[in-house]
Amino acid sequence: MTARAAILAKIQKANDRSPTAEEAYLAWKELPRSYCCVAGADRESVILLLEGRLRDYEATVARCCEKDAVNAVESILAGRSKRRILLPEGIPSSWLPMGIEFVVDRAFDAQALNRFEGVLTCASVAVAETGTVVLQNRAGQGRRAVTLVPDYHLCVVRMDEVVATVPEAISRLQATSHLATTFISGPSATADIEMTRIKGVHGPRVLDVLLME
Amino acid sequence: MSGGALDPRTASAFPMAAKAAMSDGQMRKNVRHATEVIQAKRARVVAEMPDWQELREAGKQIRQHTMLYLDVYLEQFEDNCSRAGGVVHWARDAEEARKIVVDLVKASGSRDVIKIKSMTTEEIGLNRALEGAGIQPIETDLAELIIQLGKDQPSHIVVPALHKNRQQIREIFQREMNLLELGEDPQDLADAARKFLREKFLHVKTAVSGANFLIAETGGVCVVESEGNGRMCLTLPETLITIAGIDKVLPRFRDLEVMLQLLPRSATGERMNPYNSIWTGVNASDGPRVFHVVLLDNARTTILADHESRQTLNCIRCAACQNACPVYRQTGGHAYGSVYAGPIGAILTPQLMEMHHAQSLPYASSLCGACYEVCPVKINIPEVLIHLRNKVVRRNTSGFPGMFSPEAVAMKALAAIFRSEKRFRAAQRLGRMAEGPLVRKDGWINWLPGVLGGWTKSRDLQEMPKETFRDWWDKRGKA
Fold this sequence. Notes:
The structure holds 2 protein chains of 2 kinds.
Chain A: H1 3-15, H2 21-29, H3 43-56, E1 60-64, H4 69-79, E2 84-87, E3 101-104, H5 110-114, E4 118-122, E5 125-127, E6 132-136, E7 152-158, E8 162-163, H6 166-173, E9 181-184, E10 189-190, E11 198-199, E12 206-212
Parallel strand pairs in A: 1-12, 2-3, 2-4, 4-7, 5-8, 7-12
Antiparallel strand pairs in A: 5-6, 6-9, 10-11
Chain B: H1 14-22, H2 25-47, H3 52-68, H4 70-83, E1 87-91, H5 94-108, E2 112-115, H6 119-123, H7 126-132, E3 136-139, H8 142-149, H9 166-177, H10 186-203, E4 206-209, E5 213-215, E6 220-225, H11 229-235, E7 239-245, E8 249-250, H12 256-267, E9 275-280, E10 290-296, H13 300-305, H14 320-324, H15 328-331, H16 342-352, H17 370-374, H18 381-397, H19 399-402, H20 406-419, H21 421-435, E11 444-445, H22 453-456, E12 461-462, H23 469-478
Parallel strand pairs in B: 1-10, 2-3, 2-4, 4-7, 5-8, 7-10
Antiparallel strand pairs in B: 5-6, 6-9, 11-12
C-alpha cells in the first residue's frame, strides 16, 4: 500500500465515511460567515484609514493625480536619492521622470537585481484596515523577486484599487488567485529580538506608497 | 537548556524539567518580558475588530469542516498542485518525510539548503537528517538563525528565540559570525543577520519551507512571515521543497479571508504581518522551476480518529495560547521537551507520540482556561487536557500490571472508604493521628512520605481540623 493510500484510508476510517467533492462543497457553502465582509465607511474615510495604517507600520504615503504622477515620482525618488530604478513591464512611461535611470526587468538573475537601488511597481489591491498592498505577477507588478531583492520599493496604488477589509480584497483576488501573490504590509520587519519591532531585515527596508487619483 | 534536540521520547517528565528551568532567572525574565509584550499587542489589535468573535467562530467551523472532508481536500490539493507543475509526495511518518526530503535535496545537486522557519521540519528533526547526509541546512529566520548558531532549541512556536535577550544574541553573533565590533542594539543585530544571509540567498539553489495553508481549490500554498527571508527562499532558488502536515489544508481561496485576519493578530499582534506569499505550482518566469510538496501524516490521522481530541488538529500555530499560559510563562518552552510547547504542545505532543511518551504534559496546566479564550479557532484546550489525562490514567492502570500501580491501589482504597460511613470516620481519625509528626508549627505540611510525597512536591497541605464537621454536629445535638 502506498503512503498516499494508507493516509487517505486512515482519514476515511477516522471519519467513518468517504464523502464526495460535491458533498464537501455543499457543506462548505453552509458554513456560517457572520463576520463583517464589507465596510460601510465612505470612500474618503477608507483612504484615510489606509494612509494611517500604512504609516503605522512605517511606510511613507503620498497622494497625486494621474497627470501629475511624473512630478510625484520624481520628488519621492529624489527625496530618497535614488538614481537607478528597476521596473516590471507595464509601467506607463508617462510616470517616469528624466534624470533617473529606469531599467525594465529582463529576467535578471539575483545578483543583478541586487545591484538596483530600488523598484517601482503598481498593485492589484490595497487593504485599508490592515495597511496592506497586494501584488500579483502581472503587468506593472512583475515577478516576485523584483520587489524583494532591491532595498527600496515605491508602490503606486490607484484609488479604485483600495478596499476597506480583507474579505473585500480576497474577493477581488479570487479570479486571479492562481497568480503568484504577495501581501506587503510595511517594510520588511522583525520582532525576534526582545519583541522590539525593527524595520528592515531581508526585504526592502523602505516602502513608499503613492496613492493615485 | 541547550544542546540536545527536543525529543519527547527522551525528555525528562515535565515536573522535573520545569524545576530545572525555574532556576534559570535570566530565561524566566526574558520569557516574561516577551510574552507580556506580545499579549499587550494582541489585545490591542483584537479590540479593534468588532467582529472578532464571529471571525473566531468562522475559523473554528472552517477547520472542523476541513477535518470532516480531509480526504477530499487533500486529493483536490494534490490534483490542482500537480496540474500547476508541483510534485506532491505523501509521508506516513517522520522517517519517511526525512527520506523524501533528503533524496530530493540530493537530486537537486545542492550541498546546502536555505530554510524558512518551520515547526514541521523541527517536528521531524529534518536538520539532523540533512547534516547526516552531508547537506548543510541554513536557517534564515532571525530567531531560527540565533537558535542554530547558538546550538540551542526553539522554545516558542512563533518567536523561537524569545528566551534569549539582546546581550546573549550579540554574544552568539560575535562568536559565530566573527564580528568583534558588533553592537547590542536590535537594529545592529538584524543588520548583521542581513549581511550574513544575503550572499546565501543570492547563491544557494535549493530551499526548504513549511506552509501555513494549502489551498485545495487552487493547489496554492501560503506562507506568512515578517522578515522577507521567506520570500527569498520561495523566490530565488531553483528548487523548492515544502513540508506540510496534512492538517494545513484549507478548502477554498476564500477561506484565507478568515485565516489571514485571525493568524497575524493572534500570533504577533499585528493587523497583518509584513509578508504573505501565495504561489501555485511552478511558473517559468517567476520563482523556482522545481517545486515539491511533502504531505506529512506523522500521527495526525490517529488524532483525527479520537473524536474528543481531534480539535487539536484545528490549530493554526499562532502561539497565542503559549503567551497567555501562566505555566509556560514561568517555565519557558524547553521544559515541555518538545518543539511544541505551552498549552497546544501539552495536547499536541503526547498525541503525536500516540500517548507512548510525554505523558506528563497533559498535567502541565492549571486548567485556568486562558488558552481557550485567546485561541483564534476556539480549540477547547482544557477539555482536551482532561480527556488526555483520562487516557494517561486508563493506560497506566489497565491490565494486570495496572492493578498494582500505586495510583490504582490508592484510588481503590479511597473508593472503599467513601462507600461506608464507618470506614470514612475511622479514616479521618487515623489521618489525624498519622499526620501529627508531619505538621509544622504554622499548621501546614510540606513533606509527606513515600508515594504521598508526589502531592507535597509542588504544594503544601494544611493539617486536618481537630474536629470534623460530623463530630461537631453530633456533640451539638447532645448539648
